[in-house]
Amino acid sequence: MAYVVTDACVDIMDQSCVEECPVDCIYEGDRMMYIHPDECVDCGKCVPVCPSDAIFWEHKLPAELAHFTAAATEFFEQREDSSG
Amino acid sequence: MTATVPTGTEVVRGACPHDCPDTCALTITVQDGRAVSVTGDHEHPFTRGGLCVKVDNYLDRVYSPDRVLFPMRRTGPKGSGRFERISWDAALDEISKRFRSISAEYGPEAIMPVSYLGTQGILNGLNVGDPFFAKLGATIAERTYCDSGSCTAYMMTIGDSAGVDPENIVHSRFILVWACNIMSTNLHLWPVIAEARKRGAKVVVVDPVRTRTAKAADWHIPIRPGTDGALAMAMMHVIINEGLTDDDYVANHTVGYDQLVERVRQYTPEWAAEETGVPAEDIRRLAREYAGGQPSVIRIGVAVERHAGGGQAVRALSCLPALVGAWRKPGGGILQLPLWAFPVNWGAMMHPEMLEPGKRIVNQYLLGAALTGGMKLDPPIKALMVYNTNPVVVCPDQDKLVEGLRREDLFTVVSEQFMTDTAELADIVLPATTQLEQDDIMFSWGHLYVTYNHRSIEPLGEAVPNTELFRRLAARMGFTDPVFQRTDADMIAEAFDWSAPAMRGITVESLKERGWQRLSVPPPDEYAPHAEGGFPTASGKVEFVSSAAAGGNFVVPLFRQGSNDHQPGTPVDPLPHYIPPREAAHTNPELAAKYPLNLLTPKPHAYLNSSDGNLPFHRRVQGDAAILIHPSDASARGIVTDDDVRVFNDRGSFVMKAKVDPSVLTGVTVSAYGAWRMHATSLSTVASVNPVAFADLGNAPTFSDTLVQIEKA
Q: Is A43 in the B-facing interface, judged by CB distances under 8 Å?
């Protein structure tokens, strides 16, 4: 259960969300930010501060953006692989 | 009733009504009389605009097509689900006629209210029906659903202190989260803990399950269910034996230290390791880090009371902060129920003086037995009035309870927002408002803010707030006392002792305007109410030897309509001690041979107890009801994930999907409660196997003290 960053963040990466996140679960990728699905506590504070309206709650993710959930999972799997 | 709600686009301040510590401040946007969004109030210092999965979709509840919007009368056999719409007049006529005739034939004690905190506002919540049933002379309902045992234990030790301000946990250096899955049940506390962590605090979670909260901690200590008291007693043993006490604090602000020293001698880490499954070295390390990490805080969850020795476990945990001087600084102490900081005018809500002395009391957890002859009640229960609760799902002994509710000679009235498992078995169903359709004023048991809930929309259909329900019933019964003439505004004016120091600068008007206000207590950075002792106990100190134990076991009168009659009164050892679980291999090997797995039934992530268990979105988030089984227990039974399994003991059984999951201990199995009975393939839920036996203090339930067996269905 988590919030998900979507395409509106690509090449924008404003990072207001990072400031707002109380648990530091938002990480910087090459072209967009990613929310760690296990670290996110579902508080939703990142949503209103995003100037690009890029963040959605997983359960309310529009169907055409659904693949960003998997993209986040993949991002963190690769990250853990490379660090571990 | 209040004035008509505005038209056009309006933003209205509200408050979450759920029985949760966080009591979120809400912002409701209304367009032409229809609520179009419910969001968290970003300005609220504690809840800060975030809403949990339960309430983020509150409009799903308000505008659900399944809402009960009109009074209904049963037309088929009980449980057939056949009802017809009737008028309020007809409903009130029938209810008053039946209450009168039952009262005349059997005496008024044959009528019993059944209620809790389905809505938590001071007006519409815990005590809303109390004056009516006191006047009627009905059986008193004892409602020990939540924290009752913990409250008895806490008050025996510390008194009714607010304890730690949750916001000042940012200053804590060592945060011990005990039996509390904060991320699912106290969400807004986590950012505070996260901030403390950034400042260097260590977070430790004691829980039999590797919950999301446990995963996020620095150290998760898995513990055998029901043995929390052993760990807490052994921590005291280590702290005392290794000289880690704050001797000055102990000398000045506690009583009974010498006896405590004697008492904890037997509770060695090696002994506790056997009992709890936590290695002795870990127990030592925990005790040392807790004592050394000042200010340290213990956040206890409701679950800690839910076993045979739950009360004494809380006694021990409540002693720990004084032992190490944690209370000296902001962020040090124990967080149980900061509710005690609120000068709620409970008397004006309950009116206990209206109770006839000696009136019979029945605990609602015993409702199944009470309705089916198991309690030898004279007179028997012939009528129930259910509001703010769904006992079929939240009470144990589900099979008996359903059998009782099916009695054709039992007259049952249920006031509800939805056709719950309980409402389906009613004779009359009355439509209840949601929080958007009613005015209320809220305490919190998880922060120090009073919150005002403005009615933001007109009631849907013919739904009425509980306050109006009881005004109507009282009028129809001919009760003319002034208490039944009060408007909601009158009741709000009586909801608090506005002259109390904690209410300085807070008025009904200021609350209406601002939505919420912090109690007039020092700011979080300074709040340390017991830095110099001053505990609200008989001695004014932390009572290791409790003077309140002399009167024996008791339930805080708040949980029993204000009555202090017929208290359990069983003798209580004035010193904290360990009481092992009833249903465990080492205390009941015979039972454990038949039922070797310890079942835990914690709060679900997406439901608030059974509330929301019917809403499609919430059900999707929560997922199908499932039971977690450790891989070794699963393979021993040939069970794999998604198998249908039957879970059973002598009390009952249920069937659901298995989920093989290493996040539970071997020998422990977990299934969240709250799922509705009507959605279960077995037409039974975890409540069918949970015990009715009480914990040692405060008639708390013992849902974590339950042995079951699991087999493939």
A: yes
CA distances from B247 to A39, B98, B250, B283, B406 (A): 40, 64, 5, 22, 60
pLDDT for A24: 84
Q: Are B475 and B326 in contact (CB under 8 A)?
A: no
Which residue from B276, B152, B250 is spatially nearest to B553, judged by alpha carbons?
A: B152
pTM comes to 0.95
Contact call for A42 and B52, based on CB within 8 A: yes
Helices (DSSP H) in B265-361: which residue ranges? 269-276, 280-292, 310-323, 346-350
Interface ipTM above 0.95: no
| Host H or E run for residue B597 | strand B597-600
- pLDDT digit string, tens, across residues B677-713: 999 999 999 999 999 999 999 999 999 999 999 999 9
Given a contact cutoff of 8 angstroms between Cβ atoms, the answer to whether B13 and B466 are in contact is: no
Using one digit for the tens of pLDDT, what is the confidence trace for A52-63? Answer: 999 998 888 999
Which H or E run contains B51? none
CB B190 to CB A23 under 8 A? yes
Check residue A80 and give its pLDDT.
80
From the list B380, B368, B355, B359, the residue with the least C-alpha distance to B106 is: B380
State the DSSP string of B53-80: TTTTTHHHHHT-TT---S-EEE-SSTTS
The conformation of residue A44, written as its DSSP 8-state character, comes to -
Contact indicator for B600, B669 with CB cutoff of 8 Å: yes
Substitution target from A42, A60, A69 for chain B, most B beta carbons within 10 A = A42
Q: Are B146 and B365 in contact (CB under 8 A)?
A: no
What is the rounded distance in angstroms from the CA atom of residue B342 to the CA atom of residue B510? 17
Q: What letter represents residue B10's amino acid?
A: E
pLDDT at position B7 is 63
Chain B interface includes A59 (CB < 8 A): yes
- Angle (nearest 5°) at CA B455 between B445 and B26: 50
Q: Which residues of B501-534 are buried (b: 16+ CB within 10 A; e: fewer)?
A: ebbeebeeeebeeebbbbbebeebeebbbbbebe
C-alpha distance from A7 to closest chain B C-alpha (Å):
23
**pLDDT at A84 > cutoff 60:** no
Q: What is the pLDDT of residue A81?
A: 79
User: How many distinct helices (H) and strands (E) make up chain B?
Assistant: 23, 27
| 3-state secondary structure (DSSP) of residue A55 | strand
The CA distance from B352 to B441, in Å, is 21
Q: How many helices (H) and strands (E) does chain A have?
A: 3, 4
**Contact of B412 with B382, CB cutoff 8 Å:** no
Chain B residues touching chain A at CB-CB below 8 Å:
40, 42, 48-53, 56, 183, 187-188, 190-191, 194-195, 198, 212, 215-216, 605, 617, 620-621
How many Å lie between the alpha carbon of A8 and the closest alpha carbon of chain B? 22
Segments of chain B scoring below 50 in pLDDT:
1-2
- State residue A59's pLDDT score: 82
Q: What is the dihedral of CA B431, B436, B437, B442, to 10 degrees?
A: 100
* DSSP single-letter state for residue B349: H
* pLDDT (0 to 100) of residue B84: 98
3-class DSSP assignment, residue A56: strand
pLDDT at B6: 58
C-alpha B610/C-alpha B678 separation (Å) is: 12
CA–CA distance, B456 with B4 (Å, rounded to integer):
10
- Residue closest to B668 by CA, chosen among B226, B255, B288: B226
**How confident is the model at residue B1, as a pLDDT?**
45
Cβ–Cβ < 8 Å for B335, B662: no
- A13, B151, B155, B311 from B314: Cα distances, Å: 48, 9, 10, 5
